[in-house]
Prior knowledge:
This protein is α/β, with parallel strands linked by helices.
Amino acid sequence: xxxxxxxxxxxxxxxxxxxxxxxxxxxxxxxxxxxxxxxxxxxxxxxxxxxxxxxxxxxxxxxxxxxxxxxxxxxxxxxxxxxxxxxxxxxxxxxxxxxxxxxxxxxxxxxxxxxxxxxxxxxxxxxxxxxxxxxxxxxxxxxxxxxxxxxxxxxxxxxxxxxxxxxxxxxxxxxxxxxxxxxxxxxxxxxxxxxxxxxxxxxxxxxxxxxxxxxxxxxxxxxxxxxxxxxxxxxxxxxxxxxxxxxxxxxxxxxxxxxxxxxxxxxxxxxxxxxxxxxxxxxxxxxxxxxxxxxxxxxxxxxxxxxx
Length: 308
């Protein structure tokens, strides 16, 4: 029986934010040797029901839905089930199997370390904004709409564009081997009011610490939890950090990753000019994510005696 996989994601108002997910879907398709589509809850296209319709039109009679989320939060627990129910009623001939989000998969610590080993300066990181015009949807909701970077503005033609959301940064060889005596690792997390979701992050970070690649590792939250990212930065500096690598614990280059997170480091660099601040890649850029997704798809299929 033909089988298909759909990666379910939230979506972003920032044009081009989903390009890394599309690249990930192609990688997973090569590994799984079956069609892999992408379906969004909001903002981006195709929406989830359209992705299902395309899979069914292509002949799929069993669809594995993988939530492309780091934790089993609100969107996975509350928003996805009604969508699945609606699709099951619309396509009663199709079997829908829902997998788990990435959570604390065994490869997640390796993914964090791989992202930390590829660093950019703040100026280089800001090139993420310049990815958006490559995929302009003429959408007024985009935070760059009619700005100097918007493709609807003729000034954008004078700006050199960099597909930094798709091309890995330069490996930082100083991060390999023994722990750096003055380099701290800051893992920047969105945060969740659900304790279980945060516990997944803590479990991953604890395993990162055992690698001893950094003399100090801290978690900082954008919202909902403590310590905040500014407070986590202060903790790193108080511990003696002369160099800090910050990894966005995010899967997409949406507004948070492209603007909010680097702004924290830019502010900190002004306050602590003696400290070097670098950004590692966000998690969605690491190819190992595709292997995690394959494991999750295989586990979901095996539960119903249908391994890939």
